[in-house]
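Morning - 1-deoxynojirimycin inputs below, output right after.
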Amino acid sequence: MSPGPENAPTSPSTSPPALTPARPGWWRDAVFYQVYIRSFADANGDGIGDLPGIRSRLSYLADLGVDGIWITPFYPSPMADGGYDVADYRDIEPRFGTLADADALVDDAHRLGIRVVIDLVPNHTSNEHRWFREALAAAPGSPQRARYLFRDGRGPDGASPPNNWLSVFGGVAWTRVPDGQWYLHLFAPEQPDLDWTNPEVHEEFTSVLRFWLDRGVDGFRIDVAHGLAKDPQLPDLPTEALNPEGTAAERWFAERGRHHPFWDRPEVHAIYREWRQELASYQDRAESPVARGAAEPMMVAEAWVPFPDQLSRYVRPDELAQAFNFDFLECPWDAGELRGSIDRSISATSSVGASTTWVLSNHDVQRHVTRYGGGRVGRRRAQAAALLMLALPGSAYLYQGEELGLEEVVDLPEEVLADPVWERSGHTDRGRDGCRVPVPWTTTGPSLGFGTGPGWLPQPPAWAAQSVAAQAGQEGSTLELYRAALRHRHAEPSLGGGTMRWHDSPSGGLVFSRGADLVIAVNLGDQPLALPAHRGIVLASGPLDPHGRLPVDTAVWLRTAG
Ligand code: NOJ
């Protein structure tokens, strides 16, 4: 659809809105933008994105119209897992900048009306964290080892791992240390799991939360929120649950009403209740920046659980504010599947009074243009999916580059692959680097404006035509579609909050009402879709056909008679 009066391209704002005092539950309809720091913007030319780089692009994010950013880990890290191996929770990785840069970023973001959510990684530390070094230097059974999960091995000489658990990244989940004990790592060996039955671990993370709240951040994304508690017996997984051809272990347990030994155990919820109390008491303290009228802090869970009702337990009123909706992310481009997921998601979150989130991509999954078929078809569908997602009740999480319609880069040369999955899988799984390629900002330059030199992963030359500079102001571009959609969301509060009502539609169609007079129609079928009577088109992901019908793989927001 050509931009009409309601969806003309935006020009950069000259006077951005200041951060207004927070509404209670400000996150419930917020649109967040995920900044994968290594790949967003590189200010010092070393090929790696950094905090000054993010700062330099904040006005772009303000113009895009997002309410908040979530920044992936920026802490000192040996980068065994792109920063999800944290060596010090109270400092900044020198490659990313300094604490002063972080403070300046938070201030600038707030001045532009953007809230800042940071990544908290509580399941594991880096093996270079002071605690883990102390644990290695200490004896079995020492308090230093009790912060982690050290155990003796099995077999006469203890040479077999304590149980049969496998790492998410491939291989055994245990590594042996020189004195013969083993330690647990659900991810890479450089990411030893903490023991959350140890009160010292609780105290440490509460103090880390306070450290960052004192610096003015507005919330935390909780990494592996479903993994912190382990069955204290550390039992073997049943072989049925381990069978890679069979049902995923988490689902296998959930369907039998049993607790998995390390995923989604009931004990994790006490941790989130504790943190919620901490945030609430922080909010009440007069001297804190949050209490001074910024935002009530929030927390969002990264919890990969098979069923939405399991996810809803993380967002009960005294726990976390939100959880990423991976049920929606994992849906194929299919009307029935998406409708089922939308209904399940809303019903699960509303059963506990929480808002729903909508997510299509992040730094761990294949980009959705590619998942939806790739090329022109994938991009068309992704544009339609954006209008679907941004019209659903709740909050949305965008992943950097989706507003440009970027595809997964599937042909990165093997020698540049940095994801631990590549090595740990014995080079059978290329890992997640294909969705982490640096953002193209300009049509020229060694890394298309990402930095002054080449980026840490090479961009496909075709990305010049998809860069921000190439799309800005261009009618029909993905970037202008996102800008227009976010502008409308701000102008019409009913697009974020409220409820939705499904309309009957032919197979392959999704049609629903939002607010007093908006109807959203998405065509996932193989025939053009007749639109309901309407007073005009607010926004569309592509032109209607000559008969005024909605073409295949297209979405539209309509103004109806009300
Ligand atoms: C989830 C993060 O999103 C992912 O990138 C990371 O590898 C694992 N957690 C381990 O921290």
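Note: Residues 81, 84, 121, 187, 223-224, 302, 363-364 surround 1-deoxynojirimycin (CB under 6 Å).

O.
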